[in-house]
């Protein structure tokens, strides 16, 4: 674990736990609170503690975990870090996400090295001490450190994290620690009333672990009435003013900071910390949200991928479209299309009426021919195209087959032959371990002047995040370029092709990296912004 030099800031900790059921929105609540505190002038960071025993989510199936969010320093992390970065507007790193697997791996490694001098290694104090050292890694660097504990209170996996939370409460005291508990208040339609019992049981379970919540964020489908909040406060031993209802938002998750601000969450936190309440500036954020809710234009975008049954597999891409849509004052309607269902025979009917197509990232050969068939149709019919990682590689294969005449062109990931226009990097050929061994993190890229991507970025030197093993095979570069494929982005040494374009096409761009990971609320990402502009132009041509 990386050691960080502390400064003299008086750091305060806000723990966020969840109860009753998963997917209530702890990540959104954490990110929203971080934005509110940031907009009050504080320095803020957020940390996610994940109870699963995997060292990181890098080897987990997208259907189980959603996308893997990669940081600049190459950490494969939980998708909640994407929410944190999008709301905070700055990059985080590997110290912002810790898993049970990492904690136990470190403790066992220390034991093997003789670090514990023959002592019996136990959950308390050795596992909890390791967790606490990770929680405190930013101590003194930020005014507020928000700690989101994954899972649901009562899960056996999260017990060491909750015990560490209890110990930090005891060590630092109420002036430096606040506990927020996110819970669920269901509305039983047949009974015609809201039920507080699940929340009561959740709080009871949390208190059994020695943690008393200071604030309850109560999720519900509709507004929670005052008498219901009073009942929750009484039975859960929480101030009535600290029971905050957070109903489902109507339009976008980016409304949540405004809702929490209106509910007075910042004032409650400052009161509990015995701090003066500074001015909160949310005007820019509110304008951003209003453009999402009331756009002037509308476009239809097809997202072609292999994991379309689970939207969280493309979470950052979907959010990047929201950001770019707001900046273009446009509602972006996304249609997810499974590439396994695509062929040359049905591609025209399935893509009818779209103004742009994004072919997404992924691994393995399932659905690849469907992606290639769609790219051929897109290229020949001048539909704006955006290929990300595997999407870019499929675009190179399609171009090699149908423009260069290399009929057997393929990737060595799918079929090893003499025409692998996409192939493993030399250093990747020696790797057998799957975890954390891809090309990961931010790398520099030099753009070709007057290219579409250079015009989008408005600069020639960029840094973007990668997560892949395969690259464009340099043995075919000259043949591809002579046929009209533009290598518009290269590594600084010119050895790796990072971006491709096609001449005489309205907008055809494929990138080896993952630009969606650096898209931020309010500011967006240059490539997504430019792509939506191209889609708007396509819509005008159709109309």
Descriptive account of the structure:
By secondary structure, this protein is an alpha/beta fold. The protein has 2 domains: 12-286, P-loop containing nucleotide triphosphate hydrolases (Rossmann fold), CATH 3.40.50; 296-542, Rossmann fold, CATH 3.40.50.880. Strands 13-12-14-15-23-22-21-18-19 form a 9-stranded mixed sheet, with helices on both faces. α1 packs across α9 (256-262) and α4 crosses α5 (123-135). The chain is globular. The mean pLDDT is 93.
In short:
By secondary structure, this protein is α/β, with parallel strands linked by helices. It has two domains: 12-286, 3-Layer(aba) Sandwich (Rossmann fold), CATH 3.40.50; 296-542, 3-Layer(aba) Sandwich (Rossmann fold).
Helix content: 25-40%
Look at the structure and name the CATH superfamily of the largest domain.
Answer: P-loop containing nucleotide triphosphate hydrolases
What spatial order of strands do you see in the largest sheet?
13-12-14-15-23-22-21-18-19
Annotation, overall tally of beta strands: 23
* Overall average pLDDT: 93
| Distance linking N and C termini | 57 Å
